[in-house]
Amino acid sequence: MSIFDAIGIAGTGVTVNRKWMDAVSDNLANINTAVRTSDPAYEAKYVVAAEAADGKGTQVAGIVTGSAEGKLVYDPSNPLADEQGYVKYPDIDMSTQMTSLIMAQRAYQANLSVIDRSKEAYQAALQLGKA
């Protein structure tokens, strides 16, 4: 393990958590996107994280999408409503998305803290032996 492995491993965590926050942001931005009942609803995105191939850190293994079935909502005033007055919204739960956003943000911050502390430790090590 080299002295910069801590920074590299934390950097992979920063990347994964940034992609997680991007996916949650997309889900929240489309939570009120209505479509006709005959059209597919917005499919929520979920990031799948896995151990990095070299065993040092983590990586995004893929993006899984939710269901396109969505949920039917009675809204006859909506211009996209069908004959019965229904429109389709994505099946995304706001509280679950906000919880995911907070977890991703905290993990992102924790990884940045590791990078900062590692940088400080390396700088202190360089000062050893200097009067």
Descriptive overview:
The chain is of the alpha+beta class and 131 residues long. The protein has helices at residues 5-29, 94-127; strands at 45-51, 58-65, 71-74, 86-89. The strands form two sheets. Strands 1-2 form a two-stranded antiparallel sheet. β1 and β2 form a beta hairpin. α1 packs antiparallel against α2. The longest helix has 34 residues, at 94-127. The protein is elongated, with a radius of gyration of 22 Å. The protein starts with a helix and ends with a helix. The model has no long low-confidence stretch (mean pLDDT 94).
Task: Please name the defining characteristics of this protein.
single chain; 131 residues; alpha+beta; two-stranded antiparallel ribbon; 2 helices; Flagellar basal-body rod protein FlgC
User: How many strands, what sense, and barrel or not for the largest sheet?
Assistant: 2 strands, antiparallel
Strand order of the largest sheet: 1-2
User: What's the average pLDDT?
Assistant: 94
Whole-angstrom Rg: 22 Å
Distance between the termini: 29 Å
- Strand fraction band? 15-25%
How much helix, percentage-wise, in residues?
Answer: 40-55%
Q: Secondary structure elements and their pairing?
A:
Blueprint: H1 5-29, E1 45-51, E2 58-65, E3 71-74, E4 86-89, H2 94-127
